[in-house]
Amino acid sequence: MVALLFMTGLAIAGPSGLFAWSENLRLREVRQERLARLEVERDHLRNRVDLLDPRHADPDLAGELVRSQMGVVHPDEVVVRIED
Question: Cα–Cα distance between 27 and 33 in angstroms, integer?
Answer without folding.
Answer: 10
